[in-house]
Amino acid sequence: MEYVELKTCYREYILKYFGEKMIRNYCGYCENCKKEKNIKDFSLEAKKIISGVGRAKESLGISTLANMLMGKADTKMLNKGLDKISTFGIMKENKQEWIESFINYMISEKYLVQSAGSFPVLKLGEKYKDILNGNIKVIRKEDEKIDFDYYENDLFKELNSLRKEISKQENIAPYIIFSDMTLIEMAEKKPRNRWDMLKIKGIGNQKFKSYGERFLERINNYCMEERL
User: Fold this and answer.
1) How far is the C-alpha of 122 from the C-alpha of 158, rounded, in Å?
2) Which of 93, 72, 94 lies closest to 83 in space, CA to CA?
3) CB neighbours of 92 closer than 8 A, spacing ≥ 6?
């Protein structure tokens, strides 16, 4: 009965029932999500970003890719000849902040992959062909963005550093551990125990079992040092 009368995303409800969480609280496809007024199809933008990653031969980080797509050419970009490829400037109507936020979203959804290491670059994810072929639509809230200045946040840096340590130890990409969006929410909400951690989007029981305690320890140590 609860499922039938549900007013929010059906997919989120099902995932929560089985102990998992979505990166966002809507899927864009179920009947309830379709009633949302500010849901938009961003498949074209996703295709442009995927094309940019491919044309650049999977060699660029998030900021450099965003600059290339906007048509901003610095010396490094000119030396690489990125101003000559077909995707240079194809998103000049978009702001850099929005493009970078959207790229992070695409990483969280596994459309793109961010490599490990000191200078991570973007790779094509397992579902990129489905987007290019039109088999998957990229549905997102039109006004969805990350306002939190996470690159300059000390706790985010701590959590990101821990994620890099684990990725090297386990020889896996950082996004497999937790997405940037999940780290951002951790840094914002500062969960102090298992129950609070499980409220973070992108963390289910299995993720917590694998990595939760280590991230909780880092958060609690940070809060103690900062007297929060």
Assistant:
1) 22
2) 72
3) 69, 70, 71
For residues 65 and 32, membership in a common domain is answered with no
Q: Are residues 128 and 174 in the same domain?
A: no
- Pair of tokens at residue 60: 């660029």
Q: What is the domain range of residue 32?
A: 10-37
Q: Could you tell me if 173 and 130 lie in one domain?
A: no
Residue 22 pLDDT more than 70? no
Whether residue 69 contacts residue 51, with contact meaning beta carbons closer than 8 Å, is answered with no
| Single pTM value for the model | 0.56
Q: Does 56 share its domain with 137?
A: yes
d(CA 142, CA 137): 14
On average, the pLDDT of the chain sits at: 80
Residues 17 and 79 in one domain: no
